[in-house]
């Protein structure tokens, strides 16, 4: 070990996980399903919560290990048609541990052929069932990592060295994170036993394996470079966790609205669009989704202006003769902001961009920020940047489009 190494404790270079996002998505969707769908999604939520709890147990163990190492959580790697979702990559000074977390309920038996058998109590009876081998699953992850390493090497001799020594520096380990799980591996082969441990044994396993390794220790700089080489390959993937429940949705039309951040505000938006479309005999086209939202908005602009003028006159009467036309207009504008054409157009733009980028609409701006945007009506990027929620990155990405929409209403 280098004399000037300063790393003394574990450091997470990536700690977040898609599982938390998936859980939130399913919890939001549950009220929109029929009773059969809710039964299914609650079961999936339960299993997902098990998995998250298990990973948190491992995170706790790693954080309290006092081992100098870098950790990557929930890493997605790709090479050609191959891909792997890896629970943890733990980079110590000698070895990278590829960890597959299993928070299984029931007791686990590994027989002499390497099969995994789960035993659970069901109605007072013991039920056994085979499960897919997590060792096989994690071995595939390891194989992909090796192929990635080989793919990055051009020199044949270097490739030979990687091929020969890869498994000396990279170890697969399956961690059973449920503290209540009883592991019975007395008939399993030695090489199988060594790859399956309980969460409370993880740190001891890492220390002992590193102690037995004859590899030279990496410096702080080398260790960080090693960990970053995989972090840089990680790909953020956007998954539709709700698609499998489509057939259980109570109302497919409303479920489409669910893509927005607030079901209530989205239902209101659709109702507004429908009311405006009725004046132009377009309601059936909206439901069939055969026209663009922008066309609906354009067709309603003149009607909106007439409605606003009528409301201004009403407000002048309420405020008295001292009220100026500008004051009346501002009052009406604030009162009817969610019914205004500009509100609908900016919301339609937000929905369109979110679908293009496959992100949640409120990541672009939420309804509160949208209202603030309309009240302040910025004319430049600097003015837009001064509005809460619109930082430099967001202004750079969406600023021109937003300002073009606002300009039409100035």
From TrEMBL:
Q: Which SMART domains match?
A: HRDC
Task: Give every NERD domain span.
Answer: 50-168
What would you give as a GO molecular function for this chain, any one?
A: nucleotide binding
Which InterPro entries does the record cross-reference, listed alphabetically? Answer: HRDC-like_sf, HRDC_dom, HRDC_dom_sf, NERD
Q: What domain of life is recorded for the organism?
A: Bacteria
Which Pfam families did the record assign?
HRDC (PF00570), NERD (PF08378)
Membrane-spanning intervals of the chain = none
Q: Which positions fall inside the HRDC domain? A: 336-410
What is this protein identified as? Helicase
Species name: Anaerocolumna chitinilytica
